[in-house]
Records
---
Amino acid sequence: MAGLELFQRMSVEQVAKWLELHPFEIVRILVADGSLPSDLKLDANNVERVRVAGGLETWWDGPPAPSGGEAADRALVRAMLRRMLEKGNVEPKVVRADNLFRGLDVENQRVLRRAVNALIREGVLASSMSAMGLTVTITAGREPDVRAFAIEGAGVVDRLWDQD
Amino acid sequence: MSGIQTSPAVIAVLDDIAKWKAKGDAEFGGSMAEVDREEDSARRAIEEAQRQLLALATLRAELREKHAQVGAEAERRERAALRAGLSTDRAVIEARAAKLEAAIATREAELQRQLQDPEIAAAVEEYEKFVEVEASLASLPASYRRAILDHHEKIRRRLEPVIAASNAGPPMLGLETVGVGVLFAVDPAEGAPEALVAVLPVPFSVCRDWAERKEDLASQFAYRVVAAVSRLLTRVGAGGAPIQYAELAGCLAVQVWLGDCDAQGDLREGALEEIDALREEADELGAAGIELYGLWVRAAMLADEEV
């Protein structure tokens, strides 16, 4: 039999776990949106507001299957960069950093985090802090390098991958 | 040739002159001795005054050093008082959180007991079935959908008391009201602010370990202050300012970098107004008998781990 949770609105913590966001980020997004309930209990509309106002997207429902003998990690990083290109996340258009990982298991998230950090160090990607948290974008002028690696598996970024 | 004879009268005059001169010499000697004594006395007085000046200079230096130590000691005591205040307030919040949790659990147990009533249990079962199929209602014929919605509305009305009780505000603990403080500081103290920090009397784990610990009064306290800081930033035109969360004396510190914003307005006044608004809004704090206040301190007091 169902319990009280059937009738109860959600706590910030519950929504945070559901959306894979820190509770403080949920609070900040809802404040910026002017829709934080005064009793801190959230309903489906509030959750939708967090998604929309916070720019939350779920890019993955699991890692891509590698093909042609390509290493799984490499295929995952290329797929992430392809998605950034498809969504036009080239400077100045940024994407929430956590969108890059949402929907992946912990191990694959770790792979992408390492790759993103390395690409930021090399200036291929750029990160910045904003009200919506950490954001990432493809550095202006590096789009051709990213495209060469993401689409063809070649170019400067590919060589970086080999070094790594 | 005979010598010049001096008359007795002249001799007497010369003798008088000699005596007059001797007297003058004697008077001069006496006067000079007097002047010498006065000079010695004055010199001793000067030496004494110089010794006094030296002693006063030494005393002044000692007083300055002592005063500097008082300043450092006052700062040390101020830091210790802030640390103790945070610790005390944190303990209050944690104790009241446990009591509030227990009161909520008692209330929910009673509601769960009510759900066992056969009539209510049957309604709950129907309600649950509706929730499961709600998303697919759009695909049903309109008349069928209308009938289902009407029936669900009847069920919902029957369960309204349970639904309302499930979402009721926190139960009042009826405890004595205790004040707890949030410390604010801005750096630099004058001119364009570069950084704002708020230190909350809640454990840093509400931020770091949020996924492992159950949401409680301390978590909600943190949400409230994060919301207040966010509103404050919007008020001063710095809504996009990045926020970081750090640990300060075991407590949660909300740190805002304002260096890249052109914050306009009075942060101090704004923060206190937000705290006032928060006090009105936060039912859970009222239920737990906690009254929140904001306290501005010098940034140096919060600059490192030595709060």
---
Amino acid sequence: MRILVLTKSVPDLVEELVLDEDSGELLHDEMTYVPSEWDDHAVEEALLIKEDSNADVTVLAVDTGDVDNMLFTALAKGADRAIKLQGDFDLSTSNRKRAQAIAHYVKENPYDLILSGVQAIDDIDGQIPAMVAGLLGMPHASVVTDVRLDGDRVHFHQEYGGGLQAELASQTPVVLGIQAARKPPRYASIAKVRQMMKSSVLEEVEVAVEEVPELEIRRFFKPVAAGHAEMIDGDAEEVAERIVSILKERNLVRG
Amino acid sequence: MALRDVLMAATIIMFVAAGAIFSRRFWNIYQVMKKSRPTNRSDRLGERLTSTFIQVFAHKRMLKIRYSGVLHLFIFSGFVVLLIDVVGSILQLFVAGFSIGPVLGMIVDIWVCLVLIGVVMAIYQRAVIKPERYHGSDETDGYIILGMITMIVIGIAIHESFYPYAAIPVFGVKSAPIGAMEFLAYGLSHLWATLGWTAPRAASIGYAVGYAMDILVIWIFLAYLPYSKHLHVFLAIPNIFVRKMRPPGELVPSPVPEEGIAIRSFGDLSWKDVMDLYTCTECGRCQAVCPAHAAGQALSPKMIILELREALKKELAGGEPIPLAGGVVSQEELWACTTCGACMEACPVFIEHVPKIVGMRAALLEDGEIDKSAQKVLVGWDRQGNSFGQPLKKRPQWTKGLDVAIKDARREPVDWLWFVGDFASYDPRLQDLTRLVAQLLQRAEVDFGILYDGESNSGNDALRIGEFGLFEALAQKNLAKLEEAQYNMIFTTDPHSLNALKNEYVKYGFDRPVKHYTEAFVDLIEGGKFDLKPLGIRATYHDPCYLGRWNRIFDAPRELIKRVGVDLVEMPRHGENSFCCGAGGGRIWMEEVGIKERPADQRIKEALTLEGVTHFVVACPKDVAMFTAAVASTGNEGRLRVVDVAELLAEAAGLGIPDKLVATR
Amino acid sequence: MGPILVVAEFTEGELSDTSRELLTKARELAQSLGSEVIAVGFGSHAEHAMANADADRAVAITGLGLDQYLPLTYERTLSQIVSEYHPLLTMVANSTMGLDLGAGVAAAQHMPVIAYCNGLHTDAEDIVAQCQAFAGKLLAEVAVPAGGAVITVLPGSFGSSGTSGHPEVTVMAVDSVPGMDVVKILEPEKGDVDITRADILVSVGRGIGDPENLGLAQELAEAIGGVVSCSRPVVDAGWLPKARQVGKSGQTVKPKLYLALGISGAPEHLQGMKDADLIIAANTDESSSIMEVAHYGTTVDILDLMPALAERLRGE
């Protein structure tokens, strides 16, 4: 079983998003990028599958200039190979274009199971796993957890609203958008990542991407809060006092 | 004559056999040590000798527990005297007519009594007092050894007392009667006379039995020792001699092993670590002082040593090697450690528990195993340089509320460079306190500055979680910024940062003076920089592990507390024996697994036993957070207030301070 | 000008609230563009459920096994319909089904997809979509391309007019596509309590920090006569069962009082609780999204607030 995990980096939301307020453009080069949280889960799920069976795990990222550390980290966690798709890409490259590049690669290099984070914080032009599947005509499912191999079939859970889930089974190849891994993603120690940097190489694959449908994003802007809570000041005691009086006004305190 | 020949032959044969068993064992241990990692233990020879002398002959650490210390001193000193006896008795057997003389004879008799008293005390301790620290130790082994010692010393008295009667039948020489100076043999020989056991046959048997109990049991003892915890009889003194003499707070000395600090197998231990395993006496003093153990968690430092020793024995016997981290020693045990160092402080034979625990943690970490909350903190340190998951840019935000701006030490020279630390910078509950320290420095007209967002976490706790690579990355970041700055001295409010700057950055060539704020403030007070009004409160002081035990700064905070007119009452556990708050070694971020009573809660209860004490003084930001919570969770808000030394100083110096920080409120 | 296609979803055999919203918005756009609205629904109840939908035409797709959502079959079928009808806009809810169909169909049909849309209007020349990005920290204004697009819409973005219509319903029978099928439905573990029925929810998030602190939340819930619920990270950490989760992949709740403690308010969470009658939020960050839907907010530490509140409520 060959598993491919699609990963990407996204702006670190702990730090400020940097926006040119006049043009509404994101200043990609001024932000710090971190691996997308959902992709971390996809990597973890792939590694857990590898531990259960003899799957071979390859991680892939479109080379937007800052992905080396992310790929070495995945290798340090236990992935077998790492691939960097090279071409005309940078941090502002759209998801659609990335999906197209990945589709070209997968067409030439088949895998049985393709996992990726179900979404990313910056995918208003579409979630990569669903687009890759659409482009390749492969079956796919989103909001997936608990992926297990059963012979040549892949079993997984898909979550719907209201806590409802279904267990599905699919033929391979299949693309799955991972919501959460069975276990929280493991840690890769800095020493181990450094060791990977010394001992392993990222395979570079050149891909050319034709024109793809792109979105015209006119501007990004900070939402004007539709409303804002009335803030209660003071220490915990004072705040508690005030909350109790609000609840009393509304008869929410038991008599 | 035949009896003498039999005894001589037995002495020689058994000596050779015991010697062979003994040597084989030592050879095995030596082989393991030879294959382990190097560690330099030949520095500061003079100090090594003196401290070994103090620990061995004055029983300095042993006497911390008075009863055990005294009984051990009796038995231990008996071993020295035993040498006189061994030489004397054997010569007596082999050289007809030899005698050690009445003076040495008396000394031997005195020590036979002392050892017997010690043995009785030891049995009483094991059977009646039953200290908790023995839980998990091999008690049978303890009794076997006590039994052998009893046989040996009683044997001495017996063969000595029969000697005058057996001299002619056994040795064919005439012996003078025993003088009253050798009181024990004297008394017993009169007893034999009264009982009528002085005839040649009876006397010969009496002598032979006594001799066998003494010398032959000693040979058995010699063969048995290396396989029991009493190997410490031979290894304790060398182990104390090769103890760590580097600064206590330095966890990883230079040069750092190229393959990292992870301990996965016995080959990853240093030879001193291996020696530690065989030296352990199972006395459990480490277990008795361990905060994790006291909290009810899986960890006992003693059991870690014993588990490792058992596994090593099995491996040497041809068993399949088991991974040390997570196998021989469980993950729960390893992650429970606060790295407070109380175990190492208590160990009479200077076993180093903490580096082994951290090394095994490093192995777990390399396999991706770590508490998930702590993992988030590691990622936060890597990305933002702080444990709060906050932006790097927000590090200096606490300075916003100050009237006078603080200098940016990266841009202009300062006299003192303040290394603020994560908690003091980011914790909203501590920022008032941090500003207070700034105001105190401003009041004292100190020319000081900070690194603003150029400061990152010192890496002290990252290292103790076992993440050496991250520690190194953080250290390099800080060192690069420190390189840019011009200053005469670094001072820090955080003992954990202090420890890293003072002891761990040395391996990267950093050697600037570093002071804790209590030391710096004492200097300022001595320089007349503050006009202090006595506060007139009664307080106790908690020594933070990384200030006290690991950096031996005990006096400065106490001096400061006294200078502001506070009546200081010590808790039973203070100074080097201080009891950890439970936050160290990354514990503050980890899930509380199996905790029955938090160390911080226990500590607050300890403080409450002190008559009239209303304030609990601390000198570490993490302590403020931990103990404030502990006072609340034990329901003692009205009875005890947690205050930082800086709050006391600010109030005594008449600074305008926020209401909630007024200590005497 | 192509039609506006709305993919309908059903709850208990009727059009879902979100589908009604989508139809209302589609109708509004169709009127200003002079276009028509086509509703597409799957399953045996689709024909009945769409009979009064506010659409001009409806396509009810039936077939063996289609009553249960089948990602592969639904996607292939929708793709086929899109290629037949050439819609200008294809609107789907940002549900699990929407996440599957939106980007998948768009890619297969060489169309762009606009995701996380929470606003749609026409300006001088274009249809303009407003989208949520970066966990709600930014919004984006996106021009819908002249050639059309697939749009996934966040539930609760538009509101529904309640208007009904009389679409001409076509029934289309399809075979399920082999390759991916449902093994079994996993009913939610209801556990000890049903948080959707509670009048008062004491809901905790990441800010609780440590599972030990859940005791404080439980005590508060007891004192106030409520039930403890939580946001996704608390479930992912294994600190509370899935049945207690509020939000997109958990339960949608509408209690009289929702106490949000240490919850920053990811869009997925807000979706599940924003209609509560009274929301009081405690979070150390005053600028967090939860404060935008909360009626009252505070930045005090929840570990201090919970016991202080519980004490007062017990004292009543």
---
Amino acid sequence: MENFDVIIIGGGPAGLSAAISAAQAGMKTVVIERGDYPGTKNVMGGILYTKATDMVVPEFWKEAPLERPIIEQRIAMLSGDESIMAGYRDPAWGTEPYNAHSIFRVKFDRWLAQQAEKAGVMIIPETIVEDLLYKGDDVVGVRTGRAEGDLGAKVVIIAEGVNNFIAVKAGLAKPLRPESVAVTAKEVIALPKEKIEDRFCLEEGQGATIELYGDSTAGMMGVGFIYTNKESISIGVGAILQPFIRNNWTPNDLLENLKSKPYVKRLLQGGEIKEYLSHLIPEGGYTQVPKLHRQGVMVVGDTAMLMNSLNREGSNLAMISGKIAGEVAAQAIKAGDVSDHAMSVYETRLRDSFVLKDLHHYRHMGKFFEEKPHLLKVYPKLFNKAAKMYLTADGTPKKERQKEIIKMAFENRSKGGIIKDIYGAWRALL
Amino acid sequence: MKLDDKLYLVRFNTDKLSHIKINDPNVCLHQCQDKPCTRICPAHVYDWDEEEKRIAVGYEGCLECGTCLIGCPFGNIDWKYPRGGFGVSWKNG
């Protein structure tokens, strides 16, 4: 059996970040990846945050395959054919130090894996990890699907992605439930770059994002998204699996529904579908974060439920968790102590960072939306109606119109209901 | 574009062995009224075969998201990743 210092299960952003930091600290490190190379099994909406990535590979933007720096973020609320939109734009985000870029995981993770290899990491592709290897109660490596495929390690980092098979087998995580994942379908639609820049009001090379709430998910808890790439647009929609099941939707129909909205249709017009993708997003939040460590093991990234969907952050949480886990593994191995206590430094450091602070901050959010499934049904409709009434010039005096708007609001949702919703939102989000 | 045509755009390295199994077809037939697997799978891998009275599984088109495993109300789908090197191979991701 071949022995390593650190074995990492999975070559996504969390796993590769862990590999880089462990190898840089002198550890003999291997990444076991089920695809033919890191990237080919990986999917995300498409936004990569600069700061976290810079901490893993300094000044990555000078070399890494990126699509467009995001200079504008819009939020839309859809109700039937109507929409309200707000946005923030700063062209300064189009230059260093940047804030975020659109990317494709296949290209980017391939590059990130190459950086890992440069740091001395060995990558074993086309290999499934079936379980951890134990000696007594101690984890001493992994069992792979290959013949004579046992590999020894002092520390194993579980970065297997949202589907948490190994973490469950190890007794660290629970099986996922329909309330704690969002199912997402996405398309990559090719368009000439001039068309993208014209339609999104962008200078050459700049990018924009739109998140769409309300009828984009048929009122289910979730969000639609549109991201500009160099010569394509990524469009997708995701919603929590439980309402998906209850409302008899299919992911493809929900995506087609979003694409048919008047505003969205015009952005995509004439484009050619290049790929259709799907992926699960871990939405359990703080209360569903699994046990993050045990003797010789740490859990990172999506497997650890590290996702802040309100701010559309996931890959950055994954990369920071991976980076810390790699560092903690190296420290522990150098000190000759890979006990649960030594691994707990990982959790302490995560708690001191924005990763678990943000999850903790939004810890009531999941329950809030679960208990108030009407939110994304009622309010987008109410706000759109109010906007229409306010902006329609039909001779009604404005004072009267404002009274009508308030009356309409209370017809759609009772006064008490609105107060409860505002209080709940304040508690869950602020 | 129809879903079937979209799936033609996806690159697969198809295994001869299925990575998906229905644990007990009787559960689908007798206990599961709703058959959510036929809707929630983004690739429509699962279809109710009325003649054979069972769920037909087109594992070849599986996009490996894992939705079916979590969504089956009876835990009746044994869904694993395909063997190493097989299955979907994204072009963009």
---
Amino acid sequence: MSSLSLKNIKKSFGDLEVIHGVDLEVEKGEFIVFVGPSGCGKSTMLRMISGLEDVTSGQINIADKDVTRAHPSKREIAMVFQSYALFPHMTVSENISFGLRLGKMAKDEVARRVSNVAETLQITHLLERYPRQLSGGQRQRVAIGRAIIRNPQVFLFDEPLSNLDAALRVQMRLEIARLHKRLGATIIYVTHDQTEAMTLADRIVVFNHGVIEQVGRPIDLYERPANKFVAGFLGAPSMNFIGATAQQGAIQLDGFNINDAQRAEANGAITLGIRPEHMSISNTEACDFSAKVELVEELGSESLAYLQTSFSSDPITMRVDHSITVREGDMLPVSVNREFLHVFAEGGASL
Amino acid sequence: MNQSNTFWRVALLALPLSVFALIIIWPLLSSFYYGFTNWNGFSDNYDFVGFENFGKLFSDRLFMSAAINTIIWMAIAVVLPTILGLSLALLIDSHVPGGPIFKTIFYLPICLSAVVVGQVWVWIYQPDWGLLNSIIEYVTNDRFNYAWLAKPDSALYSVIVAWSWQATGLSMVIYLAGLTAIPGDLLEVCELEGATTWQRIRHVILPLLTPATVVVVALSVINSLKGFDILYIMTGGGPFNSSDTLAMHMYNESFKKYLMGYGSAISVVLFLVALTIIRLYFKQLKKVDEIYG
């Protein structure tokens, strides 16, 4: 059974169309992450699913019911906001039970449910505190608690970890993943952080300029991006792009021994895409190109070397194992793993 | 460099401080002093009478009725402009058509001086051709010439209504600012949780407007304590002192009966009441800041 279905969703603000027809099917229990740069439409899409934003055209089904025009409270969804959106004048317990109390649920049933949720999120000891007395991570847990207690068909998370510091973000990411496993809930999660997307998602939906660029498992998107945008957006540091030409499938680039790489469809101007981890320092005389090390960033477990080459005006980023010492100014023989070489046509489509 | 900075800071502060001392602190201390004398306001000869003026307050029937009137004024001043201002702010914030125009209209009375407002309302209350009686006549289709300001039963309340009309604009603006400060996502949570309009107002908007309410109530209380100018224009404290407030009584005793010593004693009492209220206000403000800050 489909948990959420989006059919040709369009959204305009006045004359400006910002979502240009989005189709998506989400299975029950799936963890879907919407990613994309600022202004790509991912948050607008989430708000349309929640009902906080009207749909200009198209249809939204939740649990096979058409909810396109339904009030947000009738959609069986729960939303967790980036700002936590906790009521400052209510205790944790009152915040979590807000919706149930509005619905005039019996007090003992409310108390039972709050207690269950608090136990799940390990915040039982915080129930009588006010939001101002909580840390960022605890506040986010309370916000998640308010969502869980509604027992919704779909959870919507709008950049929930953006306000947390780096260490807490990693911890909360893990907790959200655990929670998803435990509840088996359908989650739509918006983020601009690709690490969150890669680690949490069953499937990632990459948005750009109001359209879906690609949908798929994180590893599929990483290894087989549909186009240059997806290739560049996923992966940190991002993929190196190098302009080249191709004649009848043979790639040519001065200073780069790439002639052996073939793409039958490639012709004319193309772009090569090489991830930093798919290059290595060659041990033999035979290498693909020589490059001068412009800058080295030591990250502890590895280093990032920024290379000057004769064929690219931008520096090429290469990941280097920490056991290998690389110094600025060194000339390096570099080999590229052909298996992971990406080629993009002039329009950006992957070849 | 630092020394020259300090010099300029002190020099720049000295001028406003000396003006403040001259027109606020000196008269304040003077009235404390004269409260213990029988000075008539212009003579060089007066005696120190100790607490006699303060003792007299308890036996002064007019002081007691003025104190009660001030409390009535204060109570209505807290309720009326607060509720009206809040209602108008909620209405305008709900994006009713013509909201900005209404906002300007309701705010306009604040720009008028109390004297003008008082005179406008004197005309509104005029028994024979005033707007209020004309409307009542129009509605009831019967002759109506009640003299609102000339009857002891209605004079005070008529003035309070006029005062509240002016004060409502200010509380509306304060509440509108408070409404703007409510984070949009909290209201979206209400929508997601299925709160009705009344539930949203009662459980979320009103509590979140507490800081604005504290300011509105404190301003209303403090301004009602000062209630003098509009009263002077509309009733002059009459008829038969029925609309006298403490400020009006103090004026009458000091400048009409030339009992400056006794008038000063009344002003000291007024000052102490205002000080207590301001203290309470700051205490409440601190509490509110702890929750909402």
